[in-house]
Structures are given as structure tokens and as C-alpha cells.
Amino acid sequence: MKKLSLLVSALTAGIFTTAQADISVSGSSVIAYQSADSNNNSAHGGSVSFGLSTTTDSGMTVSSGAGITLSASSAAANRAISGFQNITFATGGTSITVGNDVGLPDGVGDVGGAVGSIAILNNNGMSKTVGITDDEGTGISVTTSFGGATVGLYYVADATPSAHATGDIDGAADTGTGAKFSTSIGDVGVTIGYATYEDASKDDEETGIALTYAAMGGTLTAGYESSTGTKDGNQVGIKYSMSLDSASVTIGYSSADVDSKSANQTDVAVSYPLGGGVSVFAEMRSVSGDTVTDTATKADSTMAIGTSIAF
Question: Taking Cα atoms as reference points, which of 257, 273, 276, 275 lies closest to residue 265?
Fold first, then answer.
């Protein structure tokens, strides 16, 4: 990544001698074996990410980004071009993001997940989980820091898929608002999130809290969240991450009771670095209770082993 960043920066400086921009490029690739009972698959994909930023004479930083992705967790090996939807302006500890892909602060209490997207490929999953109907779209967010706390305010004028391309903000029915607060109380990190979503037929609300604490040589995270409206219920989760020699081990557990459906989820993930950005991993997810209907290609327990490379 560093060599590529220097090359891009040198080429940019040679063409635009007065530019003061910073262009970074990074990439990743993964190849893995994935299993859902008797359904066995290979997964191969990767991505390239571009980070763009510049600084004005007054010291304000303006940044954006984009990416090219070949999904390793899609049976259709979906290709996507992302980014260039938002621009962020940052100065004096405050950042403002505007664009067509602004996200609301939902999912704060959803902390039990420990595996990546390949391990959950063809997993039945819990049938109902906490959430709001839509959580991103055309809007604005403001984040600022004071003392030891960080506060974010979010507004989405239109969350409909078409608005992501057109940027329509007048007369929009699918609106969302939210707030997020993070701080530390003693040795405990605390994050609280609140998000709403409204359209012509439904009003959704979601509230979540997550606590982190360094314990037993690792990090313990606990979360709780509840939602009303389209998905009415609550969810709890806990996760513990630690290092064994150079290996990273994470165990997560989630339990959801939403719309009279109850289910549990257990994750286990192990990763070991080989140096040079290369690592090997093994992950497993198991669900029980009210899960999505089992099929010939899906199962309650799935796993993946593979190699990931960061460039």
C-alpha cells in the first residue's frame, strides 16, 4: 500500500504541481473454504479502496473515498463500485459529512457478531433481529468532540434507494434522525445510540448501548438494544476478544426476542498473522431457536477457513 501511495502521489504532484491533496490506495484479497453442512463452497474476492483528502489554507480537511469490490461472500460473486457519495469537512475537532449515503447510528448494541461475511454465507440466521426499516440515504451528519466525549447528530432526508442516485430531498417521506454519544466512565467505554425512521405507513425507533472493558488480558464488550415499529423487541449481546501468543481469538453471543420470535447466535473466530499483511483464519457461526427456514443449501451451523491478504 505504501509504495502504491507514493507512486500515485508522485504522479499526481507531477501533473498538478500546485495540488496539496493526499491520495491513498489500499487493497485486500481473500480465498477461503466455506461449509454449510453438506453444501461446500470456495470463496474468492477482494477490493481496492481509494482515500482522497486535501487541506484548505485555513486548515480545514476535506475528504472523500471510493472502492472497487468483488464480493467473496456472494454466490453470484457480485461486483460493485462504491464511494464518491459523501464528502466530509473536518476542522477543530468537528466533522460534517454530507451526501447520498449518510448512515444513521443504529446497531450500537449489536455487539455479539464475531465472524466475517464468508462464515455466515448460507447460514440460516436468526429469523428476527432488532432494527429499523432503512438506515441510510441522502442527508447530513455532524460529529464533534469535547472533553473526553464524542457526540454525533444525524439526519437523512430520503432513505429510498432511488434517492441514493438522485439526491432528492424535497417532499421525501422516508426520513431518519439519530444521535450517538461516546465517552468513558472510569475503565469502561460507553456508547449510546438512538435512531428513528419514518415513512407514510410506519414509524420505527431503535435505542442501543454498548459497554467495553479491558478484562482478563482481553476486551469484554456487552450490548443491549431495542426497537419498536416494524421490528418490535429487544436483543442482547456479549463478546470477548483476546490474544494468545500472536493469534487473535474472539467469541460472541447474541440473543434476540423480536415480534414473538426468539433465537440465539454463537460465533467463534480465530486469526493468526503470518507477516506482510497475510493472515489465516477459521470462523464458525451457529444459530438456534426461531431461525430462517432450513433448505438444502443452508444450515444452522456454518464455518469458513481461509487466508486474507492486506496490500
Answer: 257
Domain total of the chain: 1
Judge whether 263 lies within some domain.
yes
How far apart CA 105 and CA 6 sit, in angstroms, is 35
Query: What's the rounded Cα separation, in Å, for the pair 122 and 128?
Result: 17
Q: Which of 216, 215, 208 lies closest to 190 in space, CA to CA?
A: 208
Mean per-residue pLDDT, 51-64: 96
| Residue span of the structural domain in which 304 resides | 33-43+88-310
Give me the torsion for CA of 215, 221, 224, 229, rounded to 10°. Answer: 180
pLDDT at 16: 39
Q: What is the CATH number of the domain that holds 159?
A: 2.40.160.10
Q: Which residue is listed with cell 489465516?
A: 280
- What's the CA gap between 306 and 198, in Å, rounded? 42
- What is the C-alpha to C-alpha distance for residues 228 and 311, in angstroms, rounded to an integer? 42
One-letter amino acid for residue 256 of the chain = A
Name which of 283, 216, 279 is nearest 249 in CA terms.
283
- Among 105, 217, 199, which Cα is nearest to 159's? 199
Read off the pLDDT of residues 127-145 as tens digits, 9 standing for 90 and up.
Answer: 999 999 989 889 999 999 9
State yes or no: pLDDT of 166 exceeds 70: no
The reply to whether 11 falls in a domain is no
Grid cell 486474507 in the structure block, residue: 308
For residue 273, tell me if it sits in a domain: yes
Which segments of 92-174 are extended strands (E)?
Answer: 94-103, 136-146, 149-158
pLDDT over 70 at 10, yes or no: no
Q: What is the average pLDDT across 89-93?
A: 95
Do the strands 94-103 and 136-146 form a parallel or antiparallel pair, or are they unpaired?
Answer: antiparallel
Q: Is residue 65 part of a domain?
A: no
